[in-house]
C-alpha cells in the first residue's frame, strides 16, 4: 500500500509541477508588478466589413472571427446611436473593435500581452461558463489542479506518517511551512 501511495504522490507531483510553477510566477507578478514586463504590444488595423452581416455586435464579432481569424470571448459590448464597440478577448490577446453602422470597414486595436502578463490572466481565469471553449478547458484544468494539490498534500502526509523515523523532522518542516505560509498571507494582506 505504501508503494502505491508513493507512486501516486510522485505522479501527482510531476503532473502538476508546471501548474504549480505557473501559479508561483503569476503570484509574484501580482505582488511585484514592477518586476515584470506587463505592457502589451499594440497594433491598429482597419478591416473590411460587409454591412449586411454586421447588424448586431454579435453578428459583427462572428464575421470578424470568420474573416480575420480573431478568437476569444465577446465582451464590453456597446451599441448606441449607430456606433458598435466591443472586444474579442482570450488570455493574453484582446481585439478592441469600433464600427459605425453601414460602413464597410471597422477599426480594430489589438493588444498582445507578454508571457509574464499572460500568466496572470491564466491565474485569474477560472470557472467553466465561458463562450470561448479553451477558457472552459482551462477552468476544468484549474479544478483538477486544485483537487490534485489537495491529493498531493494528503498523500504526502500519509507517506510522512508511515515513516516513523522521519516524524520528528517532518513535524519541524511541516510547522515551519505552516508558519511561513501564514506569514506570507499576512504580509500580502497588510501590504
The largest sheet is: 5 strands, antiparallel
Order of helices and strands: HEHEEEEHHH
CA distance, first residue to last residue:
45 Å
Uncertain segments of ≥5 residues (pLDDT<50)? none
Describe the structure.
Helix 1 (2-31) packs across helix 3 and helix 1 (2-31) packs across helix 4. This protein folds into 2 domains: 2-36 and 118-190, no CATH class; 41-113, no CATH class. It is of the alpha+beta class and 191 residues long. The chain has helices at residues 2-31, 57-68, 115-124, 133-162, 167-190; strands at residues 41-48, 73-80, 83-90, 93-100, 105-112. A hairpin with a 4-residue loop joins strand 4 (93-100) and strand 5 (105-112).
Notable traits:
55% helix, 191 residues
Brief summary:
The chain is α+β, with helices and mostly antiparallel strands. The protein has helices at 2-31, 57-68, 115-124, 133-162, 167-190; strands spanning 41-48, 73-80, 83-90, 93-100, 105-112.
